[in-house]
Amino acid sequence: MEVKLFAMLAEQLGAQVHLKVSEPITADKIKQAMVAQFPQTMGVIKDSMVAVNQTFVTTEQFAAQQVNEIALIPPVSGG
Fold first, then answer.
1. Quick one: signal sequence residues (predicted)?
2. SS3 assignment, position 50
3. Does 78 reside within a domain?
4. Residues facing 72 on adjacent strands
């Protein structure tokens, strides 16, 4: 699955990465796959939000055919 990255994750890894995520797809599985493939992101990933099809998700489950877009949005600061 292609995962769009933002903020510091995009700066470190690029705008998009490919992850293998087993079904049912959940926010936790996406985060676990991300940390497994990019262990240096562990600190940022635990506090990141996951969006599926442009909607933030927490405990929802999806079949692969339901997923058009996945995004990981780390916390950002600013004023």
1. none
2. strand
3. no
4. 5, 50
Q: How many domains does the chain have?
A: 1
Q: Which domain holds residue 65?
A: 2-73
* pLDDT tens by residue, the chain, 79 residues: 999 999 999 999 999 999 999 999 999 999 999 999 999 999 999 999 999 999 999 999 999 999 999 999 998 876 5
Residue 34 lies in a domain: yes
What is the CATH number for 31? Answer: 3.10.20.30
Question: What is the spatial distance between Cα 74 and Cα 35, in angstroms, rounded to a whole number?
Answer: 13
Three-class secondary structure of residue 41 per DSSP: helix
Q: Name the token pair of 18.
A: 């490919």
Q: Which amino acid is at 29?
A: K
| C-alpha distance from residue 65 to each of 3, 29, 62 (Å) | 15, 16, 8
